[in-house]
Amino acid sequence: MNADRILIVEDEAELGELVRDYLTVEGYQVLLADNGEEGMQLFHQEQPILVVLDIMLPGIDGTEVCRRIREESTIPILMMSAKQRDTDKIIGLGIGADDYITKPFSPGELVARIKAHIRRYKHFSGQKQDNGIVSYGDLKLDKNRFEVYVKEKKVDLTAKEFQLLYILVSNKGQVYTKEQLYEQVWGYSHIGDVNTVTVYIRKIREKIENDSSRPEYIQTIWGIGYRLNDAL
Fold first, then answer.
1. Which of 22, 24, 38, 135 has its CA 20 to 30 A from that of 223?
2. First CA to last CA distance, the chain
3. Average pLDDT of the residues of the chain
4. What's the pTM?
5. Three state DSSP letters for 107-129
6. Is the per-residue pLDDT at 16 higher than 80?
7. CA 1 to centroid of chain Cα atoms
């Protein structure tokens, strides 16, 4: 059996068990909680590699669980909700979630997303083939520690924010479309919303730029995508 453990926090028993069964078939060890308190307990006890988290939960809701996990870990967090308003998606991503899926959904699509997130998380945090340090201007990124420094001051980025920035800094001057960045960081094409990239770029700018409304590092190439400014 795959040693990777996945935590599902979902109060709808049938849905939680369905997702668990699909993931078990794929060889994952699945932990199931039906409320936020139990979810946090299992997170601390079992150290899962990924969390699937419903927004509407009894007791501690999913947004608060996401915040607490993100304070301690960079593991992928995939949020679920029955609400389809775009504001809910932005809220979910804004608290540190890596992805978002709206109910009802295909279990096969969810499994595909989970596998892609785990594959990329392992790629960015796994084997240390070099010192993993990339620097540009006042930016320094440590791939092995998932740490970012601006003018020697540590800046807290989520795993997906780090991965996006690392790609741009490692390939300064190269223009990437939203679709290319989405594929490289989220790991699947034609699934989900590529505008997620826009949300993440905005959040990265807020953390690393002196003035996020006039970014110096990440440039928008209108009608195409983004690139790291190579003229600094």
1. 135
2. 49
3. 87
4. 0.75
5. HHHHHHHHHHHHHHHHHHHCCCC
6. yes
7. 25
Give Cα 109 to chain centroid, integer Å.
17
Cα(91)–Cα(97) distance, integer angstroms = 9
Domains of the chain: 5-125 (3.40.50.2300), 133-228 (1.10.10.10)
Look up residue 44 and give its two tokens: 């601390």
Which of residues 171 and 127 earns the better pLDDT score?
A: 171
pLDDT at site 130: 53
d(CA 44, CA 67): 14
Instruction: Locate 9 and state its tokens.
Output: 């926090």
DSSP code per residue over the chain? ----EEEEE-S-HHHHHHHHHHHHHTT-EEEEESSHHHHHHHHHHH--SEEEEESS-SSS-HHHHHHHHHHH----EEEEES---HHHHHHHHHTT-SEEEESS--HHHHHHHHHHHHHHHHHHHS--SS--EEEETTEEEETTTTEEEETTEEE---HHHHHHHHHHHHTTT--EEHHHHHHHHH--SSSS-TTHHHHHHHHHHHHH-SSTTS-SSEEEETTTEEEE-S--
The amino acid sitting at 113 is R
Asked if 51 and 74 touch (Cβ cutoff 8 Å), the reply is no
Choose among 49, 7, 52, 14: nearest CA to 30: 7
Average pLDDT over residues 196-202: 92
